[in-house]
Structures are given as structure tokens and as C-alpha cells.
From TrEMBL:
<dbReference type="InterPro" id="IPR006047">
    <property type="entry name" value="GH13_cat_dom"/>
</dbReference>
<dbReference type="InterPro" id="IPR017853">
    <property type="entry name" value="GH"/>
</dbReference>
<feature type="signal peptide">
    <location>
        <begin position="1"/>
        <end position="21"/>
    </location>
</feature>
<dbReference type="GO" id="GO:0043169">
    <property type="term" value="F:cation binding"/>
</dbReference>
<keyword id="KW-0732">Signal</keyword>
<keyword id="KW-0326">Glycosidase</keyword>
<protein>
    <recommendedName>
        <fullName>Alpha-amylase</fullName>
        <ecNumber>3.2.1.1</ecNumber>
    </recommendedName>
</protein>
<dbReference type="InterPro" id="IPR006046">
    <property type="entry name" value="Alpha_amylase"/>
</dbReference>
<comment type="similarity">
    <text>Belongs to the glycosyl hydrolase 13 family.</text>
</comment>
<dbReference type="Pfam" id="PF00128">
    <property type="entry name" value="Alpha-amylase"/>
</dbReference>
<dbReference type="InterPro" id="IPR045857">
    <property type="entry name" value="O16G_dom_2"/>
</dbReference>
<keyword id="KW-0119">Carbohydrate metabolism</keyword>
<keyword id="KW-0378">Hydrolase</keyword>
<feature type="domain" description="Glycosyl hydrolase family 13 catalytic">
    <location>
        <begin position="87"/>
        <end position="481"/>
    </location>
</feature>
<dbReference type="GO" id="GO:0009313">
    <property type="term" value="P:oligosaccharide catabolic process"/>
</dbReference>
<dbReference type="GO" id="GO:0004556">
    <property type="term" value="F:alpha-amylase activity"/>
</dbReference>
<dbReference type="InterPro" id="IPR013780">
    <property type="entry name" value="Glyco_hydro_b"/>
</dbReference>
Length: 588
């Protein structure tokens, strides 16, 4: 007998019908994350960031365009589908030579923190892939205005240093992808300097008009800029980052050769494609154009012909209906899911388990397995701990959601120790906190930008010593994920809960079955009843705790895969993260 009405995710039937039939578009149930003000440090001056915004300006969200989804591609079972990525801003990670700037050798020295190659140890994070933000020469601190695609930023070291980093990472079982910025270059790139002469063969490497066409960008920004030759060039993000003309076969060939160099000669494992939805404009349509999709499909075929295990991860800052098109049609291996990231944080702030369950179900049904990059925030957004108002319980819940639900996780460096930051993009790319020593153990001198003032209390060394720290939580959670087929690639089965505060779901693979219970509320929950109409493996089970306490209970799953009114026997405290493995009881 159920003492209270079950709060079923009533949106589920609509989702399943929508995805299977591919009918008219719907909106997924997302909200806006709550932000709080935080003091911004006075730092080394730079005029603008890579978006062309004045430093200290607030980030502007891109508009959402909804389109009807297309068919789903077949699963390939490639390495990235079970990976856990770690996003690194090399400049802000670790300084090995005392110049105040993070570098390749510093990253090499810290690889054992990320993954020491030994699954039995418990002091490394356990990530299996790195995404390195731009490593090429650039006049800007962020690196998104490239001046040389065949070299590395001298601030970070030499090409030999980078090759050593790749080798050291691979020895530990860590794949490495790098930012590939092909939408635009720097105005200081030799191509653009030569393009200023209209007779130059490089003139058509960029997009020119004799007169200003007069229209603005998707966010209302100026996109046509007058050059020294009196003509106007197109630059979507900033006048110092002119867009390349990817319609030009010569530009395509240049990019193909760049990709060949990094995949075959240097040995990287793939690329994160910056600004992927903006690659080719069609007059005033400046994002997600048919020509962009066509170009990427050809590009995909090319790099797979060079290195079938190489991948691309696309920055498609758009709604999920638009983003999923890029992976369904073999244009990229993966895209980031911005809708889901926003929903996780907003629903956790609102303590809304029902909406979050609906969103998780919607998104995981929409994306093919291994094609959805899941994350909380990145280098262009306010940091997780700031969005969650410095609430460590909420930070644990957010981490548990995206590290146990479907998708390929991307951890932004410092997220695992609770770094904060907002607004000015440099303020969310500050140095990693390694210890309580001067400058957070990042450097022995004055850094390029100062670490957060809370580093004496919030750092890797201190949190490794504290079994209840956020870092220890991440380490334990990644150990669980890395050892579970179900958590890596298993089917997502939403469970109905009698409590609106409890987010409950199962992950089911051929050889594994996991139950996840998260209390998003601020009160303990007793007598929580769970139900699922289908999807689980039939049998009688006991629940083996992977995260949580041992309980005395038998779970019975019917032959049709349904779970009928299982009452969890213990109190689920506010902020609890409980993970159980189903252990089948042999028939007597």
C-alpha cells in the first residue's frame, strides 16, 4: 500500500513519442541558473576577450533555434564513449619554470594527479582524456586568435615539450584532444596580413565586401569591420579575429593539412571544434547553415580516413534539437549539451527533482550513445561553485548527476575542488589551487593572474587529506564510474518516486545494473517508494552500496522489467548521494 501519490515524470510519454516519431519540435524543461556576485580581482590588463567583449563584461547567452530532430546514427563503441575528459587551460594549470605562466612541463608534472596509470591507487582523479584549450601561438592570453597552426605557444614551451606531454599522457592511458580554431584566425596571422592586398592569393582566405553590408551578428554585435585597405571583412566575434572563408577550396586544403599534421605527425587523439555552428555563413544566416553541415560531413570523412579512432567534439551552443543534428549525420563524433548543463544547475538550485528527471530522460533519448558531451560549466561560463552559491552539498549533487547519467563527462579544471569565478572570463580561468603555499602552489613567482583568495583553505593538497572533501567525492565517484559498464554506456531508466525531492534512476547494461538516489531537497525523506514500468532486468536482488550505506532490502523486478512499489528502507538525508549495484540472488 502506497501512503502517498507517486510523483511520476508525466513528461515521459511525450518525450518517447517525440523522439521515436521525429515529429514537431518541443522545448525541454530547462531553466536559468542562479548567479551570485563575487569580488573580481584586479588583474593583468587585456582589452577584450576572445568574444570581443570588454573584460568585466557579462557573458551574453546565444539565442535558441529549435528544429525537428532527424534519425539516430548507429553506435560505434569507440574509446570516447567510456572516457572521462578533463578540460585544461594550460596557462592556468601549473608553472614549471618560474615565469608565472602554466606550461606543458607543468602539466606533465601533474599528470599523476589526473591519472597515475594505476587503478588501485586513490590519490589521482581518474580521468582518461584531456581537452587542452588553445595551445597555438597567439597575441591574446586565451589563444583563440591563432597566428600559427603548426606550432605551439612559446609561453607554454616547445614542440618537443608538447610531444613529451602526449607520450606521457598516453603511457598513463590518457587520450589528448586539442582546441582546433578554424572559424577564424588572428589579424596577425600571415594569411590575413597578405590578404590585405586584393591581388594576393590569400585575399579569398577571408570574407570581404567593398561596402559595409550593414547587418549585425546573432547577438546584435558588429560583424563587418573596415580594414586598412578600405574594404570590409567579416569577423563574427571580434575585429581581431577575422573569419576564414571555408567555401574556398584552398582554405579547406590548408585545414586538412593542419589536421593531418597534428593527428599523424604529433599524435593527438582529436579536436574540440571551436564555434562549430558558425563555420560558414549564408548571407545573413550566420549559424547552423546547410553549408556548415555539408563542410563538416566532408571534414569528418577526411579525418576518419587518416585516423579512424580520432574524434571531434563540437562547441554547438544551441538547443539540443539543433545540436544533435551534427552527430546524427556523421559530421562530428560528439557535441556539448548546453541545455542539460543549464538544467542540472538550475534544477539543483531549485531543488526540483521532477523537472531534472524529465530533462535527463528527454536528452538521453535524443542523443545516440557516446555522442553527448555532458558538463556543468566551462571556460565561457560562471564556475559551478559560484552558480550553486558555494553550497558544497549542491556541488556534490551536480557532480553526481552528470557523472552517473548518460553522456561523456567533461570536468573543467578546478571544478573538483570548488573553484569559484564569474563575469570577466579571466576570472573563471584563474590558476589551479595546488596547496596552501604562496600563490596556491601554482608558481614560485608573481603569476600571470592571481589565484582566488580562498586558496589557503581550498586546494588539492588539503582536500586529499580530507575524506569528506569535494575532491575526494569526485575521486570516489570516478572510481565507481570507471568500473561500471552501466554507468559508462548503459541505458537510462527513470524511476518514479513518492517524494518530489528524490531524483531516482537506474543505469542498465548487459552485465551491470545500478540504482542512483539523490535527495535534492533540504529535508530528509522517509519511506520513499520507487516504481518503474519497464527497463530493468528481471530477478530478485540485494543492493550492494557503492556510495552510501548498507541496507537490508530485497528488490524484486518482474519478468516484464517493471519495478512495483519498492519502498527504500532507510531515511534519505538532505543532499544524500546513494549509489547501489544490483546483486542477483540465486534461485533456491
Amino acid at each position: 500500500m502506497i501512503s502517498r501519490r507517486l510523483n511520476k515524470p508525466v513528461f515521459l510519454l511525450i518525450i518517447l513519442t517525440l523522439v521515436s516519431a521525429c515529429t514537431a519540435p518541443q522545448s525541454s524543461p530547462n531553466g536559468n541558473a542562479v548567479q551570485v556576485n563575487e569580488p573580481v580581482l584586479t588583474l593583468t590588463p587585456t582589452d577584450v576577450d576572445e568574444w570581443g567583449q570588454p573584460l568585466n563584461a557579462q557573458t551574453v547567452n546565444e539565442p535558441v533555434i529549435t528544429l525537428t530532430p532527424t534519425d539516430v546514427v548507429q553506435e560505434n563503441g569507440e574509446w570516447w564513449k567510456t572516457a572521462v575528459f578533463y578540460q585544461v587551460f594550460v596557462r592556468g594549470f601549473y608553472d614549471s619554470n618560474g615565469d608565472g605562466i602554466g606550461d606543458f612541463r607543468g602539466l606533465i608534472q601533474k599528470l599523476d594527479y589526473l591519472n597515475d596509470g594505476n587503478p588501485e591507487t586513490a590519490t589521482d582523479l581518474g580521468v582518461t582524456a584531456l581537452w587542452l584549450m588553445p595551445i597555438h601561438p597567439s597575441p591574446s592570453y586565451h589563444g583563440y586568435d591563432v597566428t600559427d597552426y603548426y606550432n605551439v605557444n612559446p609561453d607554454y614551451g616547445t614542440m618537443d615539450d608538447f610531444r613529451e606531454l602526449i607520450e606521457a599522457a598516453h603511457q598513463r592511458g590518457i587520450k589528448v584532444i586539442i582546441d582546433l580554431v578554424i572559424n577564424h584566425t588572428s589579424t596577425q596571422h600571415t594569411w590575413f596580413k597578405q590578404a590585405l592586398e586584393s591581388e594576393s592569393p590569400f585575399y579569398d582566405y577571408y570574407i570581404w565586401q567593398d561596402e559595409n553590408p550593414g547587418y549585425s551578428g546573432p547577438q546584435g554585435q558588429v560583424v563587418w569591420h573596415r580594414a586598412s585597405n578600405g574594404k570590409y571583412y567579416y569577423a563574427l566575434f571580434w575585429d581581431q579575429m577575422p573569419d576564414l572563408n571555408l567555401k574556398n577550396p584552398a582554405v579547406k586544403e590548408e585545414i586538412y593539412q593542419i589536421v593531418r599534421f597534428w593527428l599523424e605527425d604529433v599524435g593527438v587523439d582529436g579536436f574540440r571544434l571551436d564555434a562549430a555552428k558558425h563555420l560558414i555563413e549564408e548571407e545573413t544566416q550566420q549559424e547552423n547553415t546547410a553549408l556548415t553541415h555539408e563542410w563538416l560531413a566532408n571534414f569528418y570523412a577526411y579525418y576518419k580516413s587518416l585516423k579512424p579512432q580520432a574524434i571531434t567534439v563540437g562547441e554547438v551552443w544551441a538547443n539540443s534539437f539543433e545540436a544533435v543534428r551534427y552527430v546524427r549525420n556523421s559530421e562530428m563524433d560528439m557535441v556539448f549539451n548546453f541545455d542539460l548543463a543549464r538544467s542540472i544547475l538550475s534544477n539543483i538550485n531549485d531543488r526540483d527533482a521532477i523537472s531534472l528527471s524529465n530533462t535527463l530522460t528527454f536528452e538521453t533519448r535524443l542523443f545516440p550513445t557516446g555522442s553527448m558531451g555532458v558538463f556543468l560549466t566551462n571556460h565561457d561560463q560562471d564556475r559551478v561553485m559560484t552558480v550553486l552559491m558555494k553550497d558544497i552539498d549542491k556541488a556534490r549533487l551536480a557532480a553526481a548527476v552528470y557523472l552517473t547519467s548518460p553522456g561523456v563527462p567533461f570536468i573543467y579544471y578546478g571544478e573538483e575542488i570548488g573553484l569559484t569565478g564569474q563575469g570577466d572570463h579571466r576570472n573563471i580561468r584563474t590558476p589551479m589551487h595546488w596547496s596552501s603555499e604562496r600563490m596556491a602552489g601554482f608558481t614560485s613567482t608573481t603569476p600571470w593572474i592571481f589565484p582566488k583568495m580562498d586558496y589557503p583553505e581550498k586546494n588539492v593538497q588539503k582536500q586529499l587529506e580530507d575524506p569528506e572533501s569535494l575532491l575526494r567525492f569526485y575521486i570516489n565517484l570516478l572510481r565507481i564510474r570507471n568500473q561500471s559498464d552501466a554507468l559508462q554506456t548503459g541505458q537510462f531508466i527513470p524511476l518514479s518516486s513518492s517524494s518530489p525531492s528524490i531524483l531516482s534512476y537506474a543505469r542498465v547494461s548487459q552485465n551491470d545494473q545500478i540504482l542512483i538516489l539523490l535527495n535534492l531537497g533540504d529535508q530528509p525523506q522517509n519511506g520513499v517508494t520507487l516504481r518503474s514500468p519497464e527497463g530493468l532486468k528481471p530477478g530478485r536482488y540485494r543492493l550492494q552500496p557503492l556510495a552510501g550505506r548498507l541496507i537490508d532490502a530485497i528488490v524484486s523486478v518482474e519478468q516484464n522489467g517493471s519495478l512495483d512499489d519498492f519502498e527504500f528502507p532507510e531515511t534519505i538525508a538532505a543532499g544524500d548521494v546513494l549509489i547501489y549495484q544490483f546483486i542477483q540472488i540465486p534461485e533456491s
